[in-house]
Amino acid sequence: MARRLGPKHKLCRRVGERLCASDKCPAVRRPYAPGAHGPSQGRLRLTTYGTQLREKQKAKTVYGILERQFRRYFEDAKRKKGDTAEFLIRLLEMRLDNVIFRLGLAKTRDQARQLVSHGHITVDGKRVNIPSFQVRVGQAVAVSDKSKSSPYFAAVLPGLAKREPPSWLSIDPAAGAGKILSNPSGEELKQNFDTNMIIEFYSR
């Protein structure tokens, strides 16, 4: 299972934004460039290429995926008829690990990836251990019956009643399950990175 290794908050500090789901992200506590002179110096002005590269790196960091797989998502989105930027975000959002995160079954996408890869999640009643698995409209995602009794899910599931997932998802807190109602669209596709810049980067 390929995944992004290294300091998780390094890029957050570099761009001055919280790209992770952690409330303790250093980019929030220290919103300036890293280094001894960070507080007193401004951030460098980027070229168009530099800005495009930064937005791509931000997206990869948010979803925790590597370059080869991210490029493949772009190529898949480009082959579809319509807005490539919209299709790219949709492919990222419909990853199984992201859906688990959006439903509130995990606090972060990294944690959601672990839950999937360790066999705790089912799709339409069948166990799926591939975090990048693309879910489809109408499919049901759930915590496996065996895993529901684990200390982790025993603590998490009661809190789902207070969780309000995106409108393209529904959740049944008692069952520890959710359903994909539709494809994410419109405001639901907005992210803290510029998808059009990413498309321009790969279209050079």
Automatic annotation (TrEMBL):
Record GO cellular component, one term: small ribosomal subunit
MF GO annotations: rRNA binding; structural constituent of ribosome
UniProt-listed CDD domains: S4
SUPFAM superfamilies: Alpha-L RNA-binding motif (SSF55174)
Example GO biological process: ribosomal small subunit biogenesis
SMART domains in alphabetical order: Ribosomal_S4, S4
Keyword annotations: Ribonucleoprotein, Ribosomal protein, RNA-binding, rRNA-binding
Limits of the RNA-binding S4 domain: 94-158
Tagged with keyword Transferase: no
Domain Small ribosomal subunit protein uS4 N-terminal: 3-93
Protein family (similarity comment): Belongs to the universal ribosomal protein uS4 family.
NCBIfam families, per database record: PRK05327.1 (NF003717), rpsD_bact (TIGR01017)
PANTHER family given in the database record: 30S 40S RIBOSOMAL PROTEIN, SMALL RIBOSOMAL SUBUNIT PROTEIN US4M
Identification of the protein by name: Small ribosomal subunit protein uS4
Gene source species: Candidatus Uhrbacteria bacterium RIFCSPHIGHO2_02_FULL_57_19
Source species taxonomy: Bacteria, Candidatus Uhriibacteriota
